[in-house]
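Handout, section 4.2: multi-component inputs.
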Amino acid sequence: MNSEKNNQLPVENPDNEHRPDDDKAGGLFWFLKGKPFKFSKILIVLVFILVLTSVFIPILVAVLWSFVDPSVPWSYPDIFPKSFSLYHWQHVLKYGEVMRAITTSFIAAPITTAVCIVLALPTSYVLGRKKFRGKGLAKLIVLLPIIMPGIVVAMSLGRLLNNLHLSQTFIGLIIAHTLVGIPYMIRTVTTTFEAIPQEVIDAAYDLGASHFDVVKEIYIPLVLPGIFAGGVFTFIYSLEEFILTFIVATPTYRTIPTLLYSYLGYFFQRTNASVVSIILVVPGIVILMVAERFLKKEYLSSGFGKI
Amino acid sequence: MARLTINNLVKRFGDFTAIDNLSLDIADGEFITLLGPSGCGKTTTLRSIAGFIEPDEGDILFDQKRVNDIPPNKRSTAMVFQSYALFPHMTVKKNIAFGLKMKKVNKTEAEKRISEAIELVGLTGLEGRFPKELSGGQQQRVAVARALVMQPDILLFDEPLSNLDAKLREKMRVEIRELQRKLKITAIYVTHDQAEALVISDRVVIMNKGVIQQIGKPTDVYNRPNSAFVADFIGTANFIDGTVKEKLEADTWLLETEIGNIKTMTEYQLALGDQVLLSVRPEDLLMEKGSENTFQGVITTQTYMGNFVDYHVEVAGKSLRIQSNGKQLFEEGDSVQVHFRPEDCTIVEMKDVNQHETAHQ
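Output:
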């Protein structure tokens, strides 16, 4: 934003040839010196192309594959399939294992989210409102599960759950998802706790509220946007989690991603894989879009006075 | 609607003593201002009264009942915060209703008090708005209504006007004063703005470094400051060093000072040879010839301010600040007569008691 503004200045003042900002930009991108405006445009186009090729086109291709008519093959040099049908969707949804995986995923995700909320609230309250020695370290430790490489967490957790006789169980699956999902929740909820001015809390006590009242009437409503944002992260994380599920719960419990892996691996079926991946991706996109709208509205209505 | 007594209050934060043995007695229905620079302990005192801060020593009594161990939510105080501290997720009405809901006041009674409070502060029609949809002045009214609706024994204000612009601030302080008079609630008001303190209070408590410097009516603390700090903090002051030369009448003395002989009136008992510090307000210095305390000076700077003119006049090598209405305008370099009445110069400090004892021998 800022660099864009700076870069536009020379265009607005063509007479003013030398500006200190030019030197700054020109230092790193010396070859673009004198044409900074064009440079920012190039960047935008590059990012756009990147998103298009890495996200949008694969999804589009998956959508197309999922609707291919099995009786009319889609092959080179056709850019689009010649004929569409719902055959693969019906076929996949008829499979018992697909429905089971979808059910498992959509039961595990809300439970993981709920467990994360319950566990994160007290932690976030302390991290966000209290002063204590080693708070910085505590905040770092909370983030460790997402700092550590997934495979490292998965291997050690798999071993641990195995010793506890919890591998290949649904509880083990929830524990695994919660462990890596909870840092996101703690992070966002802590931030919302931190954002509540102490004077607002003092005012509530001053007006006769008990500790319970303050939690119920002030803290909970004010951190709700944070819980919601964190919930979106943990829900989508749980839906799309692969490595932990694969090591801890497969083959007893299959989620959509582990099922997708088997479609892409042992029994490669592009059409089935396409259907399953859409089932996996679409809820995430919908949740994100709804969340975006809800969060905007919620944050707007919770401006903290003039602060 | 309570008398507030503070006895020997002490509060330390680590090595820093925020309140140093403070005692204060505030009458029922009185409007008191705690005035002082930042870090003087005024806010700490207010928060101790509300119960947010536990004092290290001393007692706080409401109507002679000790409240030290009563938590803030059980004390009959209501506070208006500097940031207003409105609940952002509640409408104006819910904000105002919050305290009554907490105290479980019955519905009809609560409704009645809420609508009275809303009308009192002039927020009728805005009940359904959220705080962020209100202007600063309106938010401030909500904060006041939210405190008033509780019908507290003691109303506490923590620099409530510091976030408003100058015009609105002047308007609101008169409104707060009128409301308090009408409702006859004991009020304690913290500010660092001396003009606000003078306008709003029955009595002003001037604090510095955790210690009360002077308590008095606005006219007293302005006209009869008891220390150089008070004279300087409230308004502006010219300080002149002098020595007692002669007793003229029971309360009138002649001083020999750095700018010449000055006749002053004081209730202090002075002795010949006492060294004193005099304070004269810039607006009490008149640029005309008087029968006494008249000095010759030259104007070094002149600043036109519209409603008054600010001069610096050099008298016998000392620069004096003079504020006069702009009726007669002098220019820089003009030679002028400077005059002030004996009752307009105040002794704010007496120094060197030893020397006065030797002078007697």
